[in-house]
């Protein structure tokens, strides 16, 4: 019998025992990408966290139905319902159609998930394909008198919801119009757009007719409409980055619960930022890389996944190429030790129990990694191979996968000559060959079962 699964619920600010609405089924929604540009490694940290959560649920015997949105319309360049649509802006800049932009960056994102061993969602839902669902939800809100019209769109009146801002614990009375909150025709600083009117009909590539006029949906209404369409009006888990707490997720809760009169989501889980020099990883602060750029620098995507797993999902993770290199070296040492482990057909229940306790204590993966390291270093432990096999169902860092690397023929010949020199105890020649092989970018690990060759870290 596994331990209870405990999770930190942002809504209550408490660690709670996870109890699904309809056990063993779990309905889970993750805020997906806005597909106007590449997802950087800070974004990808959030998806690794969601994947660990999902794998932990599955490991505990739950059946997960996972939905992720693709925002291809309506996400403006400002949280104050102003500025350009990010996807429209990218299409203009690159002189392509919106569809070309969306498909290109969405496919790269999906490739990144594959490279990182992230299980894809059961359902991908594009905002542009669910416009009628959004219109229907806005009509429900309109019927309940939560909306009002301005010259640029239909807005949600947050003053009519007594508990608005409960997720972020916003002090509404202290909010005033300012740089990030442009009041304009809004009744309240926290009011947000449900539907935006086209300023000049035909100028946008994406616009639709609605009961209120030609336009496009607001960003927040998209997630509410699509999550409820596929998971129901009340579901188990919603995930995202901590930057979604004060605006996007707060507004999702407001409009969803106002429309249905029900609790929207039971458990809200949020991943902390990847930080560079103490600040959130961003273009302006530097330290911003895509996964492909890290690969070009000699890192495998799983090196980055391992690096992410070294910090708890709710704590900021300081990034630098030096720190990533250290994680890569640590991961390779771990793999090299594991390569020598043989399957004895057993499972080490003591270590497996420690691992389960760690992951079920609010996804304490750093502690789980310590358990793994202790296991592989324990000379007296049996059942290592199959225990590692179980552990990797959650960590998904290819612990038992043997990488097949290309070794040039002349390097293989040098390796054979070195082995012959070692047999003849000609250590001077053997060392010279090792040095030459290292100059060529390869390392030799001498093991009881013979020499193993691997690529050198640069």
Question: What tags apply to this protein structure?
Answer:
single chain, 458 residues, alpha/beta, five-stranded parallel sheet, four-stranded antiparallel sheet, 41% helix
What would you say this structure looks like, in words?
The protein is α/β, with parallel strands linked by helices and 458 residues long. Helices cover 41% and strands 17% of the residues. It has 14 helices and 16 strands. The strands form five sheets. It has a five-stranded parallel beta sheet with strand order 5-4-3-10-11, with helices on both faces. A four-stranded antiparallel beta sheet has the order 6-7-8-9. A three-stranded mixed beta sheet has the order 13-12-14, covered by helices on one side. Helix 6 links the parallel strand 10 (235-241) and strand 11. The radius of gyration is 26 Å and the shape is elongated. The chain starts with 5 loop residues before the first strand and ends with a strand.
| Tally of DSSP β-strands | 16
Percent range of helical residues: 40-55%
User: What's the number of helices?
Assistant: 14
Order of helices and strands: EEEHEHHEHEEEEHEHEEEHHEHHHHHHEE
Give the radius of gyration.
Answer: 26 Å
Q: Which parts are unreliable, with pLDDT below 50 for 5 consecutive residues or more? A: 177-181
